[in-house]
Amino acid sequence: MTNSNPTRRSPRSQIRNIRFDQLRNYRLPLAGIVSILHRISGLLLFLCLPLLLWLFDLSLASERSFDHFVQISQSWVTRIVLLALGWALLHHLCAGVRFLLLDLHLGVDRIAAQRSSIAVLAVSGSLTLLFALHVFGVL
Amino acid sequence: MAFGSRRVLVGAHYGLRDWLVQRITALVLTVFVAVVVFGVAVAGELDYGAWSAIFAPLPMKLLTMLAIVALCYHAWIGVRDIWMDYVKPVAVRLALHVVTVLWLAYCLLWSIEILWSV
Asked: Looking at beta carbons, which residues of chain B come within 8 Å of A62?
């Protein structure tokens, strides 16, 4: 029983959170990037909820307000905001599906988790690109 | 309190309910997004008539209502987790919790008003 004598106890290893200034040197794995983006996109959607509701209201209230909505959505500022929110929704959705699968113990091992992270970034990225083409009138 | 292998599994507020609610609401929101995307894809040219027709039938209104309630509950759990992780002073954190709840309640009531005026 080495632990019964407090003077002979070896120093316990301590796990600390990294400090803010250490973030730059911290190599986050892909799964970690997907996870933090899931959080950022969620917060972004939460903060812009009134804006989305306002646009939803405009688009549904009447024919005239719908025209107003179309007019607003033509402006560059609105297009960029909509693009950001579109990415947020798509990433949040794709990463969320991945988390639900992980909850079902699907793809928990390291390689599979890395592959599904790539899949999330690829799918949400290409859908965002499609959405961008649509928002900017190419498609 | 019994922790470890003997802990109480139900009604002890370990967070299992919030965990479960966040996943159920996520599924509701996924279904809602899929239905709206499908509706838009089927509608073709999207003028006011076609767009409002998506939300006019009662089942779609109820699904939208359910999705908005799910959204608010989902956002509450997620945003609360963010405050709990990053905001340590209790007074600030509680204030943020209160603002979040009121904010979401306001959005919920507003969306009811939007939806039932279609």
From this structure: 48
Contact predicate A101/A112, CB 8 Å: no
Kindly state the tokens that stand for B65: 């209502």
CATH code for the domain in which residue A41 is found: 1.20.1300.10
Q: Rounded to whole angstroms, how far apart are CA atoms B70 and B26?
A: 8
In this prediction the ipTM stands at 0.84
Per-residue pLDDT of chain B (118 residues; tens, 9 = 90+): 555 666 666 566 667 888 999 999 999 999 999 999 999 999 888 889 999 999 999 999 999 999 999 999 999 999 999 999 999 899 999 999 999 999 999 999 999 998 887 6
* pTM confidence score: 0.84
At B105, which amino acid appears?
A
Alpha carbon distance A132, A9 (integer Å) = 60
Determine which of B114, B115, B116, B117 to mutate to test the interface with A (most A C-beta atoms within 10 Å). B114
CATH code: domain of residue B43: 1.20.1300.10
CA distance A109 to A102: 10
